[in-house]
Specification:
Layout: E1 8-12, E2 33-35, E3 41-43, H1 44-54, E4 59-65, H2 69-77, H3 82-87, H4 90-103, E5 106-111, H5 117-122, H6 125-128, E6 133-136, E7 140-144, H7 150-161, E8 164-172, E9 180-188, E10 192-200, H8 204-210, E11 220-230, H9 234-243, H10 255-265, E12 267-271, E13 274-278, H11 282-291
Parallel strand pairs: 1-4, 1-6, 4-5, 8-12
Antiparallel strand pairs: 2-3, 6-11, 7-13, 8-11, 9-10, 9-11, 10-12
Length: 294
């Protein structure tokens, strides 16, 4: 149905990148280079934007620190200086023009104070308005195992089920303390499930007791992949937490608001057919450089 169409994507990119210090003292982590399948060096944020556009997204809002607005705007909206442009190969001159066309679809939003991931998402409220939107992490890139991109897969599920969708991946117990985890009831085995709980960074003991999913191998759990399609109702819960100064680990988080959205409107989990690469950690970034091209 037409009202289900997801037209906007939000990419929070306002973190400090402390885990990649001292490189992030001079380069934002979202601007770190990766090499794509065509051998082109591009900043992480561009790969994420292209993932969104490949899924039919029409407009992209990137949430950045106020002091970084100019850097991101310059990359997406301004041509290289004449001297550099003239030295580019014909292919890169064409790509430069494509970048500016892409820039017409991008709005740079700001987060004036770094108050957590949930707060960064909330900063997109006025721009998103009353529409469902694709939410992507600012330091994750995705590689699909099928013809359809990872973002397209998640959007397609949203348009089928008409409720918020969280992309999922399978993780072993020893790393779930770093992730958001879910549990639920399979609707389509190993693919779709109706979620019953979303929980941030569980202990192994908690996960074994409360987050087991039927049919999965012992000590394997379903965790958040880093792609979501959310209804605008999420902003109500984020706003409530911000007004009440309800913080978790010192910041306004998204996961507890996802759990409230689930309880109120229902939520579908989808096991994405693809891989997610975290470029926000030194080892994971190094691994991305190797694996993302394959």
């Amino acid at each position: 149905m037409q009202q289900n169409k997801v037209k906007k994507a939000v990419i929070p990119a306002a973190g400090f990148g402390t885990r990649l210090f001292p490189a992030t003292k001079v380069v934002k982590k979202e601007l770190f280079p990766i090499i794509d399948k065509d051998g082109r060096a591009k900043p992480v944020i561009l790969a994420i934007v292209e993932e969104a556009i490949s899924a039919g997204i029409e407009e992209v809002g990137i949430v950045v620190q106020s002091s970084d607005k100019e850097i991101f705007a310059d990359f997406f909206k301004n041509p290289p200086n004449k001297e550099l442009f003239n030295k580019l190969s014909p292919q890169n001159q064409e790509y430069s023009k494509y970048l500016q066309e892409l820039g017409c679809r991008i709005t740079i939003l700001t987060q004036d104070e770094q108050e957590g991931y949930g707060h960064a998402v909330f900063c997109a409220k006025e721009w998103v308005k009353d529409e469902p939107f694709l939410l992507m992490l600012g330091d994750h890139v995705y590689s699909s195992e099928i013809e359809k991109s990872c973002a397209s897969q998640v959007i397609d599920v949203y348009e089928q089920v008409n409720q918020s969708v969280v992309g999922l991946t399978v993780m072993p117990a020893n790393i779930i303390h770093k992730a958001g985890c879910v549990t639920g009831i399979w609707h389509s085995l190993n693919s779709l499930l109706s979620l019953t709980q979303v929980y941030e960074k569980p202990t192994i003991e908690y996960a074994r007791q409360y987050l087991r999913v039927e049919g999965m191998v012992n000590d394997e759990f379903l965790c958040i992949f880093g792609l979501y399609v959310l209804t605008p109702k999420i902003f109500d819960f984020l706003e409530e937490h911000i007004k009440q100064n309800f913080r978790e680990r010192g910041e306004f988080q998204l996961t507890s608001c996802l759990d409230r959205l689930l309880q109120e409107q229902g939520m579908t989990g989808y096991v994405v057919k693809g891989k997610c690469f975290d470029t926000g950690l030194p080892d994971a970034y190094w691994q991305t450089m190797i694996d993302f091209r394959i």
